[in-house]
Amino acid sequence: MSRETGCYSGEDVRAIDDLLQRLEEAVARGDPEALAALFCREVSAVFSGTSEPVRGREAVIATWKRHMARWSEVRIARRHTVVRIHGDVAWGSFMWDGEGRVDGQHYRLEGERWTVVMLWEDGGWRLAQTHTSMPYRNWESHRVDG
Question: What is the pTM of this model?
Fold first, then answer.
């Protein structure tokens, strides 16, 4: 099958799974350079707790850098991944369970919801749009210690 006919191959499925795995790993390591390589040039992102989308790779990475500067000992596990592909566009959803430290305090979160749109760009799948939402009323409800 080929991208030109609107069909996809097992190779595309593996490449997208790899993209999502690299997203998880880059966030857990706090590695903005690795993260930047995963996004389209004209990415748009809606982060949990924000009211406006962040547009463009540089602005999205700057937002991630601000978040990751406060995090340590991050562990993330992706589950319930569903992806559909049509031609040069793929979309998906998944959940992240994670824990780590924010400003020295231990937090645990289950079921952070993600939706993503991916485009075939520069010879590979890249994230074109991301949206996250967390299942909570307030951040402090996820604090584990204290």
Answer: 0.86
Cα separation, 143 vs 102, in Å, equals: 9
Over the stretch 48-107, which tens digit does the pLDDT of each residue have?
Answer: 877 799 999 999 999 999 999 999 999 999 999 999 999 999 999 999 999 999 988 999
Contact residues for 35 (Cβ-Cβ < 8 A; gap 6+): 23, 26, 27, 61, 64
Residue 72 carries which side chain, given as an amino acid letter?
S
Q: What is the bridge-based pairing of β-strands 105-121 and 124-133?
A: antiparallel
The three-point CA angle 36-4-90 to 5° equals 40
H helical segments located in 30-81 = 32-36, 57-68
Q: For residue range 29-41, what is the model confidence (pLDDT) as tens digits?
A: 999 999 999 999 9
104 burial type by CB count under 10 A (0-12 exposed, 13-18 middle, 19+ buried): exposed
Q: Kindly state the helix (H) or strand (E) to which residue 23 belongs, with its residue range.
A: helix 10-29
- The Cα–Cα gap between 104 and 111 comes to 22
